[in-house]
Specification:
Layout lengths: L1 E3 L14 H11 L2 E7 L6 E7 L1 E2 L5 E6 L3 H8 L2 E8 L10 E11 L5 H8 L12 E14 L5 E4 L1 H4 L7 H5 L1 H11 L1 H11 L8 E5 L3 E6 L2 E6 L7 H18 L4
Antiparallel strand pairs: 1-12, 2-3, 2-6, 4-5, 5-8, 6-7, 7-8, 8-9, 10-11, 11-12
Length: about 260
C-alpha cells in the first residue's frame, strides 16, 4: 500500500484506511503542520507554521527556537496542538482528510530525533546546532480525525503511536538502514516511489523506516509505503524491502 503527499498521485484509495491508519499515514507523510499554542501574555490561541518529522513510533518532532513566540508560549504552558492537512488540492477542502493531535510539547531526548528530523528537513541542518534551537516532541494525548463529511473520529494515543517493545534492533539499526538504502539502493527508492506510489520521477531518498513502513522524499514531495508484514529488525526490513522492489520491477512498464 502506498500513500503520497499533495501533488503526487496515490494508488491506494484513502477511504480503505481506518481512521487510525489514515492518521498515521497523514502525520508520517507531512512536511509541515500548524502548531497551536497558548500565548503566554494573554492566553489567546496562537497558530504558527512549523516543519515537521516523526520519530520511529510516530511521535511528531519539531526543531524550534527559543526566540520564536510559539516556543516562548510552550515554555510557559506545554499544552499544544498540531493540525496536519491532507486535503490536497481538492475543490472543496472540507471534503478532504485532516487531523489535529493534542498533547504536551517537551524537549526531545530521543536517540533518533535528530537524524530523522534532518533526513526529513535537510535545510534545517544549517541551523540545527544554533544555541537557541532544540528538538521538541509533541506527546499526544488524543486526536480528532476528519476524513470528510460524516467521517469524524476521536482517537487515543494507542491509535497514533506504534508499540516498539519488540523492535529494539530496528530502532538501533535505523540510521544504518536508511543510509544504506540511500547510498547503495537509490534505484530501488526511485522504483518504490514511481511504480508503487505512482509519484513523478526524481531523486527520491528514504528518510525513515518503522515497523509499518517507510518514508520517501523528493523536491518537496513525499511518499509513504507500508509493508505487508510488521518489521521489527534489520533482517525483517531487508526482506520486506526486497519483496517490494521485486514487486515494483514486475509492475514496471515494458519498454
Amino acid at each position: 500500500m502506498a500513500v503520497t503527499d499533495p501533488g503526487t498521485p496515490s494508488n491506494a484509495p484513502r477511504d480503505t484506511l481506518s481512521p487510525a491508519e489514515a492518521t498515521r499515514v497523514l502525520t508520517r507523510r507531512a512536511l509541515k503542520a500548524s502548531l497551536a499554542t497558548l500565548e503566554s501574555s494573554t492566553g489567546h490561541p496562537y497558530a504558527s507554521l512549523v516543519t515537521i518529522a516523526t520519530d520511529v513510533d510516530g511521535t511528531p518532532l519539531l526543531l524550534i527556537s527559543t526566540l520564536a513566540l510559539h516556543t516562548k508560549n510552550l515554555l510557559a504552558d506545554s499544552r499544544a496542538s498540531l493540525l496536519f492537512d491532507g486535503t490536497d488540492a481538492a475543490g472543496d477542502p472540507l471534503a478532504g482528510g485532516r487531523v489535529t493531535l493534542m498533547g504536551r510539547a517537551q524537549k526531545s531526548e530521543r536517540a533518533t530525533a535528530r537524524s530523522r528530523f534532518l533526513a526529513r528537513q535537510p535545510l534545517a541542518s544549517g541551523y540545527a546546532d544554533f544555541s537557541d534551537f532544540a528538538f521538541y516532541e509533541l506527546v499526544p494525548e488524543r486526536a480528532h480525525f476528519i476524513g470528510g463529511f460524516g467521517r469524524i473520529v476521536d482517537l487515543e494515543p494507542r491509535d497514533l503511536l506504534l508499540d516498539l517493545a519488540d523492535a529494539a534492533s530496528l530502532v538501533a539499526g535505523h540510521d544504518d538502514i536508511v543510509a544504506h538504502m540511500n547510498e547503495d539502493h537509490a534505484a530501488a527508492n526511485a522504483l518504490y516511489a514511481t511504480v508503487l506510489a505512482g509519484a513523478p520521477s526524481g531523486p527520491w531518498s528514504m528518510t525513515g523506516i518503522d515497523p509499518e513502513g517507510f518514508d520517501l522524499v523528493c523536491d518537496g514531495m513525499t511518499a509513504r509505503l507500508n509493508f505487508d508484514n510488521r518489521v521489527t529488525s534489520p533482517d525483517d526490513a531487508r526482506r520486506e524491502l526486497v519483496a517490494l522492489v521485486v514487486r515494483a520491477r514486475e509492475r514496471q512498464p515494458i519498454r
